[in-house]
Known about the structure:
Two copies of one chain form a homodimer. Chain A has two domains: 4-154 and 306-362 and 392-403, Rossmann fold; 158-302, 3-Layer(aba) Sandwich (Rossmann fold), CATH 3.40.50. Helix content of chain A is 35%, strand content 18%. Chain A has helices at residues 17-30, 42-47, 61-68, 89-101, 113-129, 155-176, 195-198, 223-233, 256-260, 277-289, 301-304, 311-329, 380-386, and strands at 4-9, 36-39, 51-53, 104-111, 134-139, 182-188, 213-215, 239-245, 292-297, 335-344, 347-355, 398-399, 402-403. In chain A, the strands form three sheets. Chain A has a seven-stranded mixed β-sheet, sandwiched between helices. In chain A, helix 1 crosses helix 12 (311-329). The longest helix of chain A is centred in the middle third of the chain and has 22 residues, at 155-176. Residues 262-269 of chain A have low confidence and may be disordered.
Amino acid sequence: MEGSIIVGQSGGPTAVINSSLAGVVKTAKDRGAKKIYGMLHGIQGFLDGKYVDLSDYIQTELDVEILKRTPSAYLGSCRYKLPEIHENTEIYEQIFALLEKLDVECFIYIGGNDSMDTIRKLSDYAIIKGYPQKFVGVPKTIDNDLAITDHTPGYGSAAKYIGTATKEVIRDAIGLAYDKDIVTIIEIMGRNAGWLTGAAALAKGEDCPGPDLIYLPEASFDIQKFTKKVKDLLKKQKSVVVAVSEGIKTKDGKYVCELGNDNGYVDAFGHKQLTGTATFLANTIQAELGCKTRAIEFSTLQRSAAHLASRTDINEAFAAGGAAVKAAFEGDNGKMIILKRVSDDPYQCTTDVYDVHKISNVEKLVPKEWITQDGTYVSDEFISYIEPLIQAELIPLPVEGIPRHLVLDLTKK
Amino acid sequence: MEGSIIVGQSGGPTAVINSSLAGVVKTAKDRGAKKIYGMLHGIQGFLDGKYVDLSDYIQTELDVEILKRTPSAYLGSCRYKLPEIHENTEIYEQIFALLEKLDVECFIYIGGNDSMDTIRKLSDYAIIKGYPQKFVGVPKTIDNDLAITDHTPGYGSAAKYIGTATKEVIRDAIGLAYDKDIVTIIEIMGRNAGWLTGAAALAKGEDCPGPDLIYLPEASFDIQKFTKKVKDLLKKQKSVVVAVSEGIKTKDGKYVCELGNDNGYVDAFGHKQLTGTATFLANTIQAELGCKTRAIEFSTLQRSAAHLASRTDINEAFAAGGAAVKAAFEGDNGKMIILKRVSDDPYQCTTDVYDVHKISNVEKLVPKEWITQDGTYVSDEFISYIEPLIQAELIPLPVEGIPRHLVLDLTKK
C-alpha cells in the first residue's frame, strides 16, 4: 500500500500523452496507491480546485486499453507558467495546501519543456519549505526538443504521421502531374527544432522518392536559392514536393511566414503564433515560376492522429508513465523520466530518472551535422535515429467505422 | 480466352481508385484477356502514345493486394475533356487508330463525371463509325456527385478519413480549451456537393460531441448568422468546431473564400495572398469575437489517405472494376458500372450496368431534406446513408513503419 498520487497533463497534446497517463494509473493501481487523482487542465485547473478521483472514471482494463489509443489530453491540458518561486509564494502555498488536503504524496506531471519547469519549481519549493511531496515529470512533446532524453514520447507517432501523410501527398501529386507542373509545399510544426520537419524524409523508400527538399529551422532559409532549386528540379520532373518547418527564418532572422503576413499574436509564453509559411512560399513559387502550387499544413492532426500512432511510441509513453510513479514512490524528487537508447540495432530503449534542473528550459535542436551542407535535407544519421521510433502499429478500435476514444465524462461518477 | 483490353484512370485521385484498377486487372486476367494495357495519365497520355503492358508490372497476387492499398492513380491521371464528337473527328480517329493498332476490344475508364463524358463520347463515336470496341466506365470520385449510382467508390474512404480526422481535431481542441475559447474551422472539399462536408458528422458518437455546426454548399451561408451561432455556443462551451465546405456561398451567390480575397491584400513581394474559406471565417470570428481561432484544411489527404481507407469502399471499388471488364467482354457499350444498395440493414450492395448518357454531366447534390432547416447540420437520414460505407478497415502493409505502395516503375520492364 502506497500513499495517494495526483497526475496532470500540460502543453500541446500528442497522440500518446494518454498512454503515459494510462501507465501512471496502471502502476499506481498495481502498487496499491491509496487514491489516484487527476488534475483537470493541469496545474491551472488544479489551482481552480478542479480535479477528479480517477478510480471513478478509468475502471476496467478495457478503459486503460482504449485510453492508450485516445489522442489529446484526457484530463485536459493547459499552457500555464508558474511564477518563479520567490515571486509569488502565495500561489505555491495554495498548491501545497491542496496537496495536503488530498493527502497526496506524489505529483506526476506529463508535459514538455514548460511542464518540466513546473516540476522544477514545485520540487524546489517543497525542498526549501520542507514539504514532503515528491515531484516527477513524464516527458511529452511531439517537438522532441527536450534535453538529455534520447527522444520524447509523442515524437515517434508524430513522425510516423508526417512520414505517412507526406508519402500520400507525394503519390497524389505524382499521379496528377502530367502536362502541368505541380509544386507542393508542406508546412510542418516545430518553431525552433526541425525534428518533425525532418521526419518527412521517412516517406522516402523503394516505392517513393520522398520530398525533394526539406528545410529545417536550424538552417537559415534563402528564398532566392529555394526558388532556383525548385526551378531546376522542374526541368527533370513534373511534381516537386517540399517540406518546410513553420519556423524557418531568413539569414537576418525574420520568420518566412512573417514576410507575407505581419500579425503579432503572442501566446502565454511569449511564443509568436505562426501560420502561413507554406502559403507564402506557394504564392512565391506561383508568381516566380508560373506553375500550379499547393500549400498543405498538417495542422493539429500531426499531434492528434492517434489512428496512425507508433506502437513503439505508445509503449514507451506507457512505460515512462509507470516509471514516474515508481520513482516518486521510491523517493525521487525534482526528476524527469528519460528514455535511454541502449542499442541502435536491434533497437532497445529503457527508462531512467534524471535531474529536471538540467532539462527544463533547455531546447534540444537537430545537430548541424544531421542537416546536409546546403541545408536542404536531413542526413542518413537523422533517418537512422528516427526510424526505430515509428515502428509497428497499435490499431485503433473502430466503433461504427470510427476510432473509439476514452473521454472524461464528468457527469458519470 | 478473350481479346485485349485497355484501362485508364482520370480525374482527382482517391484512396481506392487503384482498387478498381486491381479489380480490372484481376478479372481481365481470370477471363484470359490477351493483353491488359494501361494508359499513362488517362486519355491525354494515350493520345501522346503513352501506355504500358500491365503484365510487365502487376504480376503477383501480392502486387494486386498492395495495389488495393495504394492511393492516387497508379497509372497517372489527367484532367482532359475530349471535344464533342462533331467538333474534332481527327482526335477520335487518332484514338481508334491506336486501339486498332493494339487490337483492343474493351476500353475501361475509371473516373468521375468528366471521365464518364469521355466514355459517352467514345462509345457514341464507335457506334456512329461502326468501330467494334466497347467502352465501359468505372465510377470514382470522393465527391459522390455521380447520378444513378447509390454512391461512388472513393467516397466511403474519404468520409471515413473526414469523420476520423474531425474527431481527432475535436479532441485536440477540447483538451486545450480551458481559460480561453478556441474556435476551429475545418475546410472540406466539395465545391458544389456537400457529401464530404456532411461526413464530418460521423465524428459524433457516445465519445464525441461531433462538430457543432456543419455548412454544406447546398444551403446558402449567412456570415452574420454564423457569427451569432458561434457566439451563442461559446456561452456554454469553450471549444467550438465548425465544418465548412470549400464551396459555401452567400445568398447572392458569392463564394465565401472570395470575400476574403476581395480585399486585394498583397504581400511584401507583391503577390496576392489567397485565403481559403476556413482561413477567412477564422479571421472573421477572431476579429468579431476576439477569441483564438484555428483554420484547418484537410487538403489532398482527404482523397489520398489510403492508410485510413474503408474496407467496404475498397471491396466495392474492386468489384466495380471487375464488373466493368465482365460487362465490356459481354458486349456492353456506353455503360457505367453503378452500385445498387439492395438493403440498408443489413447493408448489402451489388453492381449493375447503366447507360452512361444518363449519368455523365449530371451532378448529384445532397437532397435538401437531408440538411437541417437552419442549414447548420445534416439529418439522421444522411448519417444512416453514409455509415455503412465507412465500415471496416484494410490495414496498410507497413514496411519500416510506413505504408507500402505499389508504384509504376517504367525502368523495370
